[in-house]
């Protein structure tokens, strides 16, 4: 099948200021086939044509840290609902975390997720497998078999691996299989009984706080273990200045460390939390101080942090309505990520559009060695069209995710994805919804 995307805007990489250039794009048999000058009129006989006037043509966005909740927590999200939400957010490749029930710690569970994604999903799904059985930190999973079944890396996301020897063994084994270890960095002994970060907010409310060291201690430990084992070590959801310093140091001495950051840790600090009762402001890691936020932004800008991920973490309304200490950590992310970052960093002039796009497309592809995130001729046709002109309000009632847990309701944003193509198939469009 042939698709012509006509009159779209593309980022001209030759222009430092990411000037937009009008182009037509031909997709043929699932591949990027041809770019035509915007002033020409291509022959579209027999092709499906899509009018992209005024819309940005981007490579499909890649999200290397998400929670799809299936198997086991289908009341929070399913592979069907989660991948639809991803498509609506402009994502064409997503990597779900293994903290499901059962935990994705066997080849059978990995295959279950891959089969479900193939039959019910609408975007590419690249699952991680657990480092330890049931994510309990006691016994390593069968890395070789999990790799063989299609897992792309190992992580106990949701909890930190508390035992250093366990982590070192995991890294040595992963290195021998040329697989990355992806770490949720959290020392359990430092975080008990707290929902928010140690900062102005907990002081004001007289609450116990989660200190920055609880994250950075693991980051430092694991960078040393990565140096010792040679593994590719990837740090989950970086949120503190201290972690940033350690990652910068690790990179400077040649350790194979990469890192990710979430939109909420770039946009919100603990001082934005409106009250101590609304659990939509509770996530792990917690919102830190304004100083940490600025450190994370700068780290992303200089390349100390490599990529942006959402950590899309849907929970039910009942769970999030609980008293804050008993409510689960996490917020949804797919359907607000790009508009949030575009509006707050590109529209304001701090970042170029091409910088933001790289951190959500080609950089994740580079870090995880994926053949996606590019619009080069011959590449798989994963494409997202984005409306840069129209302002719209975040309305959780319109989300395709089952989760409504977001602190961004009511925010007025630009940069809404309007059409998503995966492997040459239109999987979502603004007017018609999901196409499968
Ligand atoms: N980020 C969160 O606040 N929650 C995640 C777990 C995690 O990413 O650590 C979840 O699974 O709900
Ligand atoms: Zn985590
Ligand atoms: Zn997570």
From TrEMBL:
Active site: 311
EC numbers: 3.5.2.3
InterPro entries to which the protein is assigned, alphabetical: DHOase, DHOase/Allantoinase_Hydrolase, DHOase_cat, Dihydroorotase_CS, Metal-dep_hydrolase_composite, Metal_Hydrolase
Cofactor(s) essential for the protein: Zn(2+)
GO MF annotation list: allantoinase activity; dihydroorotase activity; zinc ion binding
Cofactor note: Binds 2 Zn(2+) ions per subunit.
Swiss-Prot/TrEMBL GO biological process terms: 'de novo' UMP biosynthetic process; purine nucleobase catabolic process
SUPFAM superfamilies according to UniProt: Composite domain of metallo-dependent hydrolases (SSF51338), Metallo-dependent hydrolases (SSF51556)
Name of the top EC class for this enzyme: hydrolase
Keywords: Hydrolase, Metal-binding, Pyrimidine biosynthesis, Zinc
Pathway: Pyrimidine metabolism; UMP biosynthesis via de novo pathway; (S)-dihydroorotate from bicarbonate: step 3/3
Protein name: Dihydroorotase
Organism: Cohnella faecalis
